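Quick sanity check, HAD-IC family P-type ATPase:
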Amino acid sequence: MAAPPVPPSNPWHALSADEAVATLRSGEAGLDEAAVRDRLSEYGPNALPAPTRRGPLLRFLAQFDNALIYFLLGSAVLAFALGHRVDAVVILLVVGVNAVVGFVQEGRAEDALSALHAMLAPQAHVWRDGRRVTVPVEAVVPGDIVLLEAGDKVPADLRLTRVRGLLVDESVLTGESMAVEKRSEPVAPDAALADRHAMAWSGTLVAAGQGRGVVVATGARTEIGAISGLIGSVDSLTTPLLRQINRFARWFTGAALGGALVLLLVAVYGRGYGWAEGLMIVVALAVSIVPEGLPAVITITLAIGVRRMASRHAIVRRLPAVETLGATSVICSDKTGTLTRNEMSARRLITRSGVLFAEGTGYAPTGRLVDAAGQPAMADTLAAELMRVGLLCNDARLHEAAPGEWRVDGDPMEGALLALAARGALDGQTDARLYRRLDEIPFDTETRYMATLHAAPHGGAVLFVKGAPERVLAMCSRQAGPNDNAEPLAPEVWQAAIDTAGADGERVLGFAWQRFETAPERLDATLVADLVFAGLIGFIDPPRAEAIDAVAECRSAGIDVKMITGDHAATAGAIAAQLGMAERPAVVTGADVQATSDADLPALAERTTVFARTTPEHKLRIVRALQSDGSVVAMTGDGVNDAPSLKQADVGIAMGNKGTEAAKEAAQVVLTDDNFATIVAAVREGRTVYDNIRKVIAWTLPTNGGQTLAIAAALVLGMTLPVTAVQILWINMVLAVSLGLSLAFEPAEPGVMQRQPRAPDAPLLSPFMLWRVVFVSILFVIAALGVFAWARDMRGLDEAAARTLVVNVICVLEIFYLFNVRYLYGRSITPHGARGTPAVLLAIAFVALAQFAFTYLPWMQLLFDTRAVALADGLVLICVGVAFMVILEIEKALLQRLGVFKELSGKRAR
Ligand code: ATP
């Protein structure tokens, strides 16, 4: 069965809801399986065409679009014209190898990012075959009946058939940031897009309320599909750090070219070189000093970080988050489901007639009630009535996924209420039939209650309410007493019971009811007043075991963990203590936050561990207050109203399972397992990525600087050059693409989570790094010139043989230096340090092979004017490398001991 085309004369918004549904050959119960299959094959999946990526050729050519490369290409032409063919070919090889490496790395990084997008495939709630099911958005077809609620992203263009306070944020489509109120009545045929209130457009976000609509268009035929070129495009591969590095690289290139020009003049006028020869030397110097490969290596480092985070269930939506995570100094986390398991069980029932306990685990509808002494007990009328409110004021469903394994569809707390009703021997099916639901007010984190209106078995109607106990108490005037009599409310008694259960870490809900002689037409908030309080139920939701370890890890890493929860202060405080967040966690409530001025809030926020009974607005103020003190704040969220604080936080983290699409859109990171420990794992990866970027830089700059300085010194001092221009180019080509790149794959250094967080504004080129560049460069100069002098004067070798030794010693030094840099903070000369990662070993094998070829292959000898090196000389070079390593190790230890550079001590410079 295929859906007929859109009626040409009447657009969807001008049809009545029923007409639209009928035209699409759908109905209340939704489509059946066969219709879905047919329509899917006719209309195709509900997806926008993949954004066009630059083709491979364009991406390859883009690698050459860089001032330095132009300079190099110009030099190659010049070299060729001057008859230096070998030099010209080697320059072209340098350029070519760099472009290929850049091309491959960028491609891999882009692939990694698009794979992440696929992992975040959104879902839609639809009615099919009379049942509510959740399907991937791609599987939605015209005629499907879609359910919308706050925080959902509208999966396709819908003609709304029923709405309840539905507000939709259509800014992606119209640019208008005010949410639009939707209605189900038809609109004039010529109404503008923004005025078609009967429609919900694909890609827009539900800001509040609920709705239901029939799909009229999917995929590219939706309104957003018509204008979309940008939506869903791959995130750009740039971050603040990368921009900082690019700026630095440009500045460095400029300075190097300026320096090269001066050297050229010195060489030609001061040292009597010919123009052509001088130019070749200077070109080689410029090529060797400019870190042209650096941005590409750093991009791959970030991409590897993103991949590692994804494998630990943290999906990075925006690349800069990788860097920021590493600098996180405060994590503000939700409680339920993130720090706790969100596996609720109802444990304690408190009514006017006393306390009962429920036995049984999980959601299995088996178990029993016992009294305080542990003796089996029957539910009295009051307890039965309390459980009935919980059973019927409830949207969850339990099902047996495997024999004996019960799962909940919907809110775990509501699932626990269903299991409790079974343990208390209530007959859920009969009750549901007797008390047919007429209307409802869904749970809302702002109002903290849920209400349902039911037909009463003997005429009239009854209202059931459940919610945060103090909220429900405030709406009650009486309480359920013995013999079905309502008596005056005694709030203090209930408050004491709430505190007792809360102090045990129980999450407490209050329940109430109200009878109506005649059923009201519809339920609205004004009817939820003057209620009869039925009692309390306490739930246990144990902390996640891994969260306890993760909290401890944060404490050692100098990261403050704060809990921001909608739950009661006593419950939240007890759970915080169980998690080890503090000995006696400082707890404040949303009301306290409200009463504190912006000026005083930072101090309060800093010393508080638990914020209870907060609303999303409080969250936003708390983030701002913490940031005003210079903290880098990671904040979790799941609801539609969390979007502003997720955007405000330095790293907004949304829950992948529990979270709404709105929260995910606003977040930079999405956790696919909703787990606090995952955030800490991501911070650890973030720190590793930053360390690795620093390692790449710490390795690249001095090695580039050292060889350049050696030649410049020889040139200025009028000595014979220790290496030729073409040899410099060779070193640069072989090393830049192997050793430097291997650092991108480094695992976390031991103790990475025992350091304080780095200051967010810490410059990449810290004083320690600058010192390293100078110190190591000087060691390189000494080694290169020293080996050259030794070879000529003491060993009596000719120029070419001496130069071969110098090229080889530079490579040896670079390899040893790599091992030093792998541990910026710890000792490098350890069995562990000597082992190396596969990437490091591969890179070294590559360099060794290349050097053997360079030294011993006859055609290479011809090309580069090299000579075979005797074994004994080779060993001397290795000894030079070992000495170099020892000197650097002593330097690192000495600097650490003397505390010259703060960063080496792992303390955060505030
Ligand atoms: P967190 O913010 O850490 O996830 P939370 O789940 O307790 O904590 P909310 O979901 O905002 O936060 O809930 C706030 C309060 O509203 C809860 O403590 C509970 O008292 C009440 N509540 C939660 N879910 C429901 C529900 N389905 N029906 C009625 N009341 C609820």
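Posting the structure with no commentary besides this: The longest strand covers residues 157-169.
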